[in-house]
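Our platform keeps sequence and structure together, in a single record for each protein. Because each token names a local backbone shape, the row as a whole describes the fold. One such record is reproduced below, unchanged from the form in which we store it:
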Amino acid sequence: MKILDIPQSGKRGLTVSQGGRNGQISRALVIPSNPRTDAQMRVRNFLASVASQWSALSQAQRDAWTTAGKQHQSKARLGRSGPLSGFQLYSKINCSLLNIGQQAVLVPPAAPAFALLPVTGLTITNASGVVSLKLTTTDAPADGTMLRAAPPCSQGRNVSPDTVYLGPLDSPQNGAVDITAAYTAKYGAPPAGKKVFVQVNQNVGGWEDIPRQFWAIVPASA
């Protein structure tokens, strides 16, 4: 439930506090389910692999990551953030690389200057009940550009539900990237009248830029 209190985040006894879109929230502690989906196990395997590799680095290599981590801040929590540890930066970069099918790196890569993402929108068509989803583009997105999406939701929603990583974008054809197969493999074909949210961001050397969000409403069959 929503409460009036000082900003809090975390567990205290059987109560969990967190920030919400409309203010401070306090709720009962609930142990989350562990369905061990393919996506969950994939990420856990990445984390285990990266942790094992960190221990195998030389001290000079770990020192280089520690020095680089001091130049990058963690995401803010309750308005506060701090420099990353060497292991945190190593995990962040290499899990991101493994997620798009690239090899882990032993040397901290320099943060890139991201080019403008050439994705301009999401279009959805419904031809005789066959729904297609495409991202319109002005150019080919960089290799490793990441696609995330949320399940179909009410078109009255203005905020996206939680998104799930679906994979890297394919090359565009005729100014569009077809994401139908990636989306329907996760959520099935979205029904007419539902809103679909997707997010796209670049991944260069394990560094990710801020995702851009697009949405469209599934039209009636034509």
